[in-house]
Specification:
single chain; alpha+beta; Glutaredoxin; Glutathione S-transferase Yfyf (Class Pi), Chain A, domain 2; 2 domains; globular
Length: 246
């Protein structure tokens, strides 16, 4: 996710309080760096940051699976992700990272699958090879097709202005065209469906929906796609989404 990449490369001292504002108040409720939220006594840790759609994906899945985890907020703006201690967990220098005893796992879709399989949530991650392959298909689709134009629009409309820059209209237009191209695919898939694969929420939905978490701030034209809009609204009503809003 481009957002995670950009934050990972921000210099120390970058003023997070001035980032992504509406002119009235911050769009996101920033969590304090180093804050730990405990959900139980198990020693499972999830390294996250509130701004990251990838981290949100893993956090949502943990909630859906009712897994006791400790959320450790990584100070991305302060450069904690570039420190040796964090790079030892994930040499890519990005969140999320899961630590379950001596087991360390990066990449949000992999973490989501691990959570679902760990607790036997085969509704989320089906055992049937065809259904499981469809879940993986949408996970790959999100990474390869859906998120890239979203990332570009986030860069042009949020990151550039936060640095005193100006969005490039040509770049915005190209990214919007690509977003519409793939949003149309998603909209068609969701026509007359509650969730991506039918009547049951799966990791396919968990993979794709968090990519839209900054849709309002980045002015993504999702209203043009009614089935997509209804599906995303439905997803945001999940307790797991509401409980990971900050």
């Amino acid at each position: 996710m481009f957002v995670d990449h950009v934050i990972a490369s921000e210099p120390a001292g970058f003023d997070a309080g001035q980032w992504w504002t509406t002119g009235v108040k911050p769009i996101l409720p920033w969590a304090a760096a180093g804050q730990v939220t405990s959900y139980g006594e198990d020693h499972v840790k999830l390294y996250v940051h509130a701004i990251s759609p990838n981290a949100r994906r893993a956090r949502v899945c943990a909630k859906l699976c009712h897994l006791p985890v400790e959320e450790v907020v990584v100070d991305l703006f302060g450069g904690e992700q570039r420190q040796p201690e964090f790079l030892a967990l994930n040499p890519n220098g990005k969140v999320p990272v899961l630590v379950d005893g001596d087991f360390v796992l990066c990449e949000s879709n992999a973490i989501a699958q691990y959570f679902a399989l760990k607790v036997g949530r085969f509704d989320l991650c089906p055992q049937d090879p065809r259904l499981r392959s469809k879940v993986v298909q949408w996970q790959c689709w999100e990474l390869a097709h859906f998120s890239p134009p979203i990332d570009t629009l986030i860069s042009e409309r949020l990151l550039k202005p936060s640095r005193g820059g100006v969005a490039d209209p040509a770049v915005e237009a190209t990214a919007e065209k690509e977003f519409r191209r793939f949003a149309k695919v998603l909209d068609a898939q969701l026509t007359e469906k509650i969730w991506l694969l039918g009547e049951t929420l799966t990791l396919a939905d968990v993979a794709v929906a968090p990519a839209l978490m900054h849709a309002d701030a980045a002015r993504l034209p999702i209203a043009e796609f009614p089935a997509l809009s209804e599906w995303f609204a439905r997803f945001t009503e999940l307790d797991a989404w509401r409980e990971t809003s900050g």
